[in-house]
Every structure is written in structure tokens, then in C-alpha cells.
Write a structure and sequence with these properties.
- The chain is mostly beta strands.
- Helix content is 12%, strand content 42%.
- The C terminus is likely disordered.
- It has two domains: 60 residues, OB fold (Dihydrolipoamide Acetyltransferase, E2P) (Beta Barrel); 83 residues, Jelly Rolls (Sandwich).
- The longest helix has 7 residues.
- The chain is elongated.
Amino acid sequence: MEREITGFHRDANADWVAELVCGHGQHVRHDPPFRERPWVTSPGGRATRLGKTLPCALCDRRVLPEGFAPYRRTPVFDETTLPGALQSAHTTKTGVWALIHVERGEIGYHVGGEAPEDEVLRPGAPGVVPATVEHHLVLRGPMACWVEFWRAPDRSVERARME
């Protein structure tokens, strides 16, 4: 899926990495004749790419970004207490992923986007919610579930050190 560029940092080899809204990073090297990206070589050039998109295969596969950590969770909901907001289309914030844990029963999980997907979540296999991707839950009968939120590490110190 296409994800917006929110910033840049250098990796351990001093190569530029685009920071995506999802929390994943993608190398954006200027390596002629294979890759023509002269814009990456200057601060002004990189600034022109903020808000532009790159395809993120890791989001397509719903891979939680490396280094993310849980920071909050909801109470356990059942079929009578599941908030309406979770049953309506909504997204997480920039840089925030979620895991939907089912303790008993099952619940429908609809992930929007370019190719909407429907799945059924059951105990033992949490539903993964990529950052900023529209989704909602669908009641399918008696169930119990809770949501755990994960966020990106603070990279501002690393970014300042590498520029």
C-alpha cells in the first residue's frame, strides 16, 4: 500500500532512509544508473518529498515495524460493550499500530484501503491494524476482545545525530 513520507534519517552506513507514516523505513538511495534520486542528496530535495508516497510491502503484509512497543490497551469488551466507534470505519494515529486480541468467540475484521479485506479473528491470532489504515470490527455473536496499541520509538535523537 502507498504510505506517506514523514521524514528522513541515515542508517548505520550513512544511506538515507525515508520514514513512512506507518513507522517502516525505506532506503532512498541515489545510485545512478540503477536509481535516479538526486533529490535525496540535499536537505531541500528531501523536503520536497515530504508527504509524497512510497509503496510499503511490509504494510501490505501487516508486519509490525521493528522496535515498536506496546504502550496502552483497552479493557476487555464483549458483544454488549464493544464501542460503536470500533464498529464504524476509523483509523489509528500516525505511527500507531494496534493488535486486536480475541479471548473467546470470533469477530469480523474489515480492513479498508485499495483492496478491502475481510477476515475473522479468533483466539490465538491477533488482528494487526497498520497505522492510519481504515478498518472496523463486525460482531458475529458472543465474544470477548481487547485492543493493544503499539507506537514508534522516538527517533529524533538518532536523526539529529546522523544528519
